UniProtKB/TrEMBL annotation:
PANTHER family: CALCINEURIN-LIKE PHOSPHOESTERASE DOMAIN-CONTAINING PROTEIN, METALLOPHOSPHOESTERASE
Residue ranges constituting the Calcineurin-like phosphoesterase domain according to the UniProt record: 7-212
The organism of origin for this protein: Talaromyces rugulosus (Penicillium rugulosum)
InterPro entries: Calcineurin-like_PHP, Metallo-depent_PP-like, UPF0046_metallophosphoest
Molecular functions per Gene Ontology: hydrolase activity
Gene3D superfamilies associated with the record: 3.60.21.10
Protein name, entry field: Calcineurin-like phosphoesterase domain-containing protein
Pfam families linked: Metallophos (PF00149)
Membrane-spanning parts: none
SUPFAM superfamilies according to UniProt: Metallo-dependent phosphatases
Length: 304
């Protein structure tokens, strides 16, 4: 199969910040935002984030929602307003959040700037560099409270219908066992998501949500998967490599400013390896982590 090296810029969890501390000047083929575009889902936060995305030098910009972007999850937004105590003034809600569909219309209108808001599901793109890109996207994350948008209870689980031959998976949250450690040393990822990733083995899986687990790992899969795949049994850790974490980022910063972090790797066997990237920009003490810039070989678009 003929492959085309494709450069990606990956960010997540910007939480409505203007991101002036991340002046990305490098041109890429595809920019990805993995959700939490806002902190409180305010309409002005969406506008600020869209302006930042417009300024990126990328031919294609792909965006999904996160749990903080609850106005994009209309049923969740309606539930929050209806259950608010004391009741919220309708005029204030309109001014702060817009109408029930306003945030979605705003995101969809950005398509004219090559900013594509992805609903859950599979999407295919023909890139300007001659590559073909097949993406699966999902904004859903597990939560025991369900107070935000795009959430499901861990006891119920969720099926991620990732098809075969997907190149890139974009989710807001991580799979269980990969770049999902919290500061309390708990795994916060989704087991169902891990199982579907292990089954389909995309070239790249990018996400955020767990801020303190920022980093990247090139995973090599075992030749035979378990009946119920898990990070304990189905990752060949002897052939897998951590490409960056918060500690390494802090060390790099001691030598000067770091605008972005490069994975600096090559996926040698796409059917046996997956590059996982947690691109959460907001660290524990604020927006103090950086985007990732990586190269991924993609199939050539045979129609070119």
């Amino acid at each position: 199969m003929s492959l085309v090296e494709t450069k990606f810029l990956i960010i997540s969890d910007s939480h409505g910040q203007p991101l002036t501390s991340h002046p990305i000047t490098e041109a890429v083929d595809v920019a990805i935002h993995c959700g939490d575009l806002t902190d409180e889902s305010k309409i002005e936060e969406f506008k600020r984030t869209l302006q930042y995305l417009r300024e990126l030098k990328a031919d294609l910009k792909l965006v999904i929602a996160g749990n903080h972007d609850f106005t994009l999850d209309v049923p969740a937004f309606q539930k929050l307003i209806q259950n608010a105590i004391p009741p919220l003034e309708e005029e204030l809600v309109q001014k702060t959040y817009g109408g029930y569909e306003e945030a979605r219309h705003l995101m969809e209108s950005a398509k004219s700037d090559n900013i594509i808001f992805l609903e859950e599901g599979t999407h295919t793109f023909n890139l300007r560099n001659g590559a073909s890109l097949r993406v699966y996207a999902s904004p859903f994350t597990p939560s025991t409270s369900g107070d935000w948008g795009f959430q499901y209870h861990p006891s119920q689980g969720r099926s991620f219908d990732i098809p075969e031959n997907v190149d890139v998976v974009i989710t807001h949250g991580p799979p269980l066992g990969v770049l999902d450690y919290t500061n309390s040393r708990q795994r916060a990822g989704c087991p169902n998501l891990f199982q579907d990733i292990a089954r389909t083995k995309p070239r790249l899986h990018c996400f955020g949500h767990i801020h303190e687990a920022w980093g990247a790992k090139l995973v090599t899969w075992r030749e035979t998967l378990s009946q119920t795949p898990s990070h304990f049994t189905d990752i060949d850790n002897s052939k897998s490599t951590v490409l960056g974490n918060v500690s390494q980022l802090n060390s790099a910063r001691q030598n000067g400013d770091v605008a972005c972090y490069s994975a600096g790797c090559s996926i040698q066997t796409p059917d046996q390896q997956t590059l996982f990237v947690n691109a959460a920009l907001q660290g524990i003490s604020g927006t103090n982590q950086v985007p990732w810039v990586i190269g991924v070989p993609l199939p050539k678009n045979l129609r070119v």
